[in-house]
Amino acid sequence: MTFDRAREAAVVPAAFDQDATSYDRLVGANPGYLDHLRLSARRLALPDDGAGLRLLDVGCGTGLSTQALVETYPKAEIVAADASAEMLAQARAKSWPSTVRFVHSRAEELAAHGVEGPFDGILAAYLLRNLPDVTAGVKDLHGLLAPGAPLAVHEYSVADSARARATWTAVCWAIIIPLGWRVTGDASLYRYLWRSVLHFDGIARLTGRLRDAGLDDVRVEPVDGWQKGIVHTILGRRPV
Length: 240
Known about the structure:
The chain is an alpha/beta fold. The radius of gyration is 17 Å and the shape is globular. The chain has helices spanning 5-28, 33-42, 64-72, 85-92, 134-144, 162-184, 188-198, 203-212, and strands spanning 54-58, 77-82, 100-104, 121-125, 150-156, 216-222, 231-237. The protein has 8 helices and 7 strands; from the N terminus they run ααβαβαββαβαααββ.
């Protein structure tokens, strides 16, 4: 099974556009999905409810990761960006404090859309796997961080574990793909999800990318539930 990351990444925003209206309903049926986003937000470990801080939620989708940041750091200014116009439309339709701003942009084009650092923390949830060039994407995130600021990558990674790969495939074909078909009438996005996770970095390679990009204190924290060993928080910090 071949996987052309650059070719697949080029059509990801359109695929999310197509399923945007049903996205929250589908992920809401996934036990732990929202709790795990909140967990990764808390793992940024920022002080004082985020008072005086500027945060970036890159790959924000319908705003579920943005909501995790708002709940965890209610006093922070938050910029949330996504490449899918329809996912962003779903996000913008929700109620937000004035401290939240949404931007339509691919992760690799943020500067062209007026999003510039430094940020005091970045959350990248389910983003890196969908980029055409993961190494360049990590370097871009590093460049947006203020000195000493943390990055939390919330992502699937199963390549280093046969058990995790088997569990992921079983859950996708027994639940995720059939449910996507039932709700949307087209399971192509969810088949892409299955493939993209199988062909993404293992934890050893992903943490290596963060270190190679210049991040310090790189470590991996687990989540619970059926996603244990499948979804991870990978943390790093730009050196002071």
